[in-house]
Amino acid sequence: MEGNRDEAYRCVEIARNALAEGKLERAEKFLLKAERLYETKDAKELLEKLKGYNKENRPSTEESSSGPYMRHEKKSSSKAESAKATEAEYTSDQLEAVKKIKKCKDYYEVLGVSKDATDSEIKKAYKKLALQLHPDKNKAPGAVEAFKAVGNAAAILTDAEKRKSYDLYGEQSHSGRAEHAAHNYSSFQFGGYSRGFDSEYTPEEIFSMFFGGGFPQQNVYMRQRRYQRAGDNQHGQREQQNSYAALINLLPILLLIMLSLMSSFFISDPIYSLQPNQKYSVMRKTANWKVSYYVKDNFHSEYQGSVSRLETAVEEEYYQNLKHKCFRERQYRESMLMKAKNFGDANLFRKAQNTQTPSCDDVQKLQTY
User: Fold this and answer.
1) What angle do CA 208, 212, 214 make, to 5 degrees?
2) Which long-range contacts does 54-61 make (Cβ < 8 Å, 24+ apart)?
3) How far apart are CA 127 and CA 214, in angstroms?
4) How far is the C-alpha of 210 from the C-alpha of 218, rounded, in Å?
5) pTM for the complete prediction?
6) 290: left (phi over 0), alpha (psi -120 to 50) or beta
7) Are 197 and 151 spatial neighbours (Cβ–Cβ below 8 Å)?
């Protein structure tokens, strides 16, 4: 029995901890085990204390302070507090401000300014409304949309070109399906705030610009809009296809370049150049297309090959260069047209239509030979 003394004291210590936590059954279990292992005074005293403990009074006391009724009272109180917090999220004035914006039919009405308002008047009106409708301050339903409408209005009306276009076509945009036939502009359709005259900036960016440092320089070559329309995806696919076509068209030129690099191991310089310089100063013209090319002074004495085959190579390189330039000219023109449609810019649209593609004209002429 003497060898069990340490284990008995350990059981007594576990029982003390159980008593402190109110776990009476666990305390009794370990005290009885301690008595079986080795009889101690501490175990006997704790067992006596446990027998005299009134098990029925303790739960009633706890029930009175934390029973179902009190829990129900706390839940009811929490619900009431939550309802009060929800009601206090926005005021009737904030809700009325949102409703007023939603009823507006154009950007001037949104900002509450006249059509001949100056930039400073527009900015002043925006700042007042933006502070009132900012989602961090106004939690009323629809506040986010109203805040965006106010930002779009300010962004469009403070840009001279966009404001001019909006004044020209905005009034017809209320129908949502208006089309303009003048200047081949029939593909444009404007419909409210989110179609033909949407700002390329987010509402938060507009807010930061007006309250922090103003708009950056705006022109038709601005960065790509953050919120692109579905048509942009189709344009991107066309650009990818055009890129593949351009690569295929460039293959002959790349082949010529590779051959030229390989031949550099055997001859010091190419036979000709399409551009004149100090080394290639003697101009010649091909017999077929009359393409100008340039050779060295000693061309007649040094070159022993076929002049006909040489001129065929000259014309092939010239033709491929023209096709490459034509592709770039068309890409540039299409890019201007797409930007004009996205920004609702009539002047840019007309400029894009009038952009010439001289290399493409030359390609067509050569194809008629």
Assistant:
1) 85
2) 55/24, 58/22
3) 12
4) 15
5) 0.33
6) left
7) no
Return the exposure string of 195-230: e unless at least 16 CB atoms fall within 10 Å of the residue's CB, then b. ebbbbbbebebbbebbeeeeeeebeeeeeeeeeeee
Tokens of 209: 């610009």
**Mean pLDDT, 10 residues at a time, the chain of 369 residues:** 74 84 84 84 82 54 42 49 56 88 89 90 89 86 89 88 82 41 33 50 71 48 47 65 78 82 66 92 92 92 88 93 93 90 90 91 84
* C-alpha to C-alpha distance for 63 and 65, rounded to whole angstroms: 5
Residue with tokens 């739960």: 59
Mutual orientation of helices 24-37 and 41-51 as an angle, nearest 10°?
150
Q: Residues near 113 by Cβ (< 8 Å), separated by ≥ 6?
A: 121, 122, 125, 157
Which ranges constitute the DSSP H helices of the chain? 5-20, 24-37, 41-51, 57-66, 68-87, 92-102, 107-111, 119-133, 143-157, 160-169, 203-208, 230-263, 299-302, 307-343, 346-353, 358-367
